[in-house]
Amino acid sequence: MRLRFAPSPTGYLHVGGARTALFNWLLVRQAGGAFVLRVEDTDRDRSRPEHVDAILGGLSWLGIDWDEGPVFQADGLARHRLDAERLLEAGRAYRDFTAREDFERARDAAVAAGTGTVARLARNMAAAVSPEESRRRAAAGEPFAVRFLVPPGTTEWLDLVHGRMRFANDEIDDFVILRSDGTPTYNLAVVSDDAAMSISHVVRGADHISNTPKQILLYEALDAPVPAFGHLPLILGPDGKRLSKRHGARAVEAFAAEGVLPDAMVNFLALLGWSPGTDEELLVRDDLIERFSLERVLKKGAVFDAAKLLWMNGQYIARMEAGEVAAALRGVLEGGATALDDDAFARMAAALAPRSRTFVEMARLARPYIAPLDGYDAKAARKGWYRDRAGAAELLRAVQDRLGGAAWEAEPLEAALRGLAAERGVGAGKVFQPLRLALTGVPASPGIFDVLLILGRERSLRRVEWAIAHIEGEGGAG
Predict the structure, then answer these.
(1) What's the rounded Cα separation, in Å, for the pair 430 and 441?
(2) CA gap 234, 205 in Å, rounded
(3) What single-letter DSSP state applies at residue 245?
(4) Which residues of 27-61 are buried (b: 16+ CB within 10 A; e: fewer)?
């Protein structure tokens, strides 16, 4: 089994391309075949080196490695032209000297007249030029395109996803395979390359279905083996229309920058149009390789759910070892200095992991612990402090006293605070919540005892003192 992923470097690696690459890669890794990376760069006006780098970088980030390549399609130009010449010599293609403007005028006139001859218009116009005159004009250097001579009959194949597919050849125009500047069109270049690379299976998006009958005809005309074809469902936005920039479609690099883990992205992409046959949603890479099959690829489009991706990413973060979480968080923080020692930092990372969907989000949640407070949540302060400033300040002083006399470990701290609540005849939350706001500046955080241990005795008591001063109007957070 030899499969290829053939991106065009006219843009970055987006979700659709990444999903196509992944499905090809899973099939190859399961079968022990070869995964070929081919960069289809024949569109010189739009191809960019930075896009090539981004595509290779995106695949590498996802962990999708290739066995051969990258091969650049433009390097096969001589072979593409030779294949066009072979088709001309075999009578399977013909020269078309018609100027584009003349052809478009004739086409528009045929459509307006309703003659029904548009599909063979180019052939009929070229027929006015005899074979001898065609060769003479070509030898004289007159520009011409080469068109494939579509044979009568039907073209069909057994699609690996959609089943039996059939196209009537009389609905396929004699398509250009070589432009007048000597460059190949997409269909000829793809077929020539696939044949030269012995590609056995072509798995790509359903938007390529209309190209497939043309390419099968070219394989047959060139006496090349016809690969097996499978066409993947399109990826849709929440409105059921094809995923686009207006839906927030982004390059794979953007998800990496937002803190999405490559394993989570691979898991998510695999489930875009494929089902494992169970309700399982979290499947590691080895599971995907073992269980993936085109038989379970859906025919209908798959909806890209960004919230689902973030949920899945959070699940992967929660499964990580504590040391891995801390290292990943430091990487997002770019090694910036924090107020925490290594043990406190690791405790913080572990406490924030279940509350974080990405490491970028975790970095935001970490700010109250690694930097000075820049204020208090206004709504939480109004609710928990300002309705009774004197009472809130008095409670925090009592908390300060209890914490100051306790050993700085989870059990003694818990006993001190729960004992205070019991003495006052209130639930523990009535003590924990004002303290949480004093320590973090926000109404939600990991458990209050984790917060105290992360900040340490000195910083915790200092923040309680600042909160009291803030409530009494004498100072602010720090």
Answers:
(1) 16
(2) 6
(3) G
(4) bbbeeebbbbbbbbbbeeeebeeebbebbbbbbeb
Q: Give the residue-averaged pLDDT of 461-468.
A: 97
Token pair belonging to 129: 């030029």
Question: Could you identify the residue written with the tokens 């089902």?
Answer: 275
pLDDT band at 478 (very low <50, low <70, confident <90, very high): very low
How many angstroms separate the CA atoms of 389 and 385, rounded? 6
How far apart (Å, rounded) are the C-alpha atoms in residues 32 and 1?
8
Residue 171 gets which letter from DSSP? G
Residue 171 to residues 82, 334, 387: CA-CA distances in angstroms? 27, 58, 77
Yes or no: say if 360 and 332 are a contact pair by the CB < 8 Å rule. Answer: yes
190 Cβ contact partners less than 8 Å away, ≥ 6 residues apart: 6, 40, 211, 215
Looking at residue 372, its amino acid is P
- Residue pair 418/428 in contact (Cβ under 8 Å)? The answer is yes
Query: Strands of 145-148's sheet, edge to edge?
Result: 93-96, 145-148, 176-178
**Cα separation, 239 vs 65, whole angstroms:** 33
Judging by beta carbons within 10 Å of its beta carbon (0-12, 13-18, 19+), is residue 461 exposed, middle or buried?
Answer: middle
Question: What is the C-alpha to C-alpha distance for residues 155 and 39, in angstroms, rounded to an integer?
Answer: 28
pLDDT at 477 over 60: no
For residue 383, give every residue at least 6 positions away whose Cβ sits within 8 Å of its Cβ, in sequence order, or none.
Answer: none
Which ranges constitute the DSSP H helices of 140-251? 186-196, 212-221
How many distinct helices (H) and strands (E) make up the chain?
A: 20, 12
Strands 34-39 and 68-72: parallel
Task: Lowest mean pLDDT of 12-21, 279-288, 329-338, name the range.
Answer: 329-338
Q: Using CA atoms, how far apart are residues 133 and 116, in angstroms rounded to an integer?
A: 28
**pLDDT tens per residue across span 399-452:** 999 999 999 999 999 999 999 999 999 999 999 999 999 999 999 999 999 999
Cα gap 62→17, rounded to integer Å: 12
Those residues with Cβ within 8 angstroms of residue 458's Cβ, 6 or more apart along the chain or in another chain: none
H or E stretch including 148? Answer: strand 145-148
pLDDT reported for residue 335: 60
Distances (CA, A) of 437 to 22, 234, 302, 381: 46, 47, 43, 8
pLDDT in tens, 274-299: 999 999 999 999 999 999 999 999 99
445/64 Cα distance (integer angstroms) = 37
Task: Give the number of other CB atoms < 10 A from CB of residue 106.
Answer: 17
Tell me the catalytic residues: 245
Which residue's entry shows tokens 């000195």?
Answer: 458
Amino acid type, 188 = L
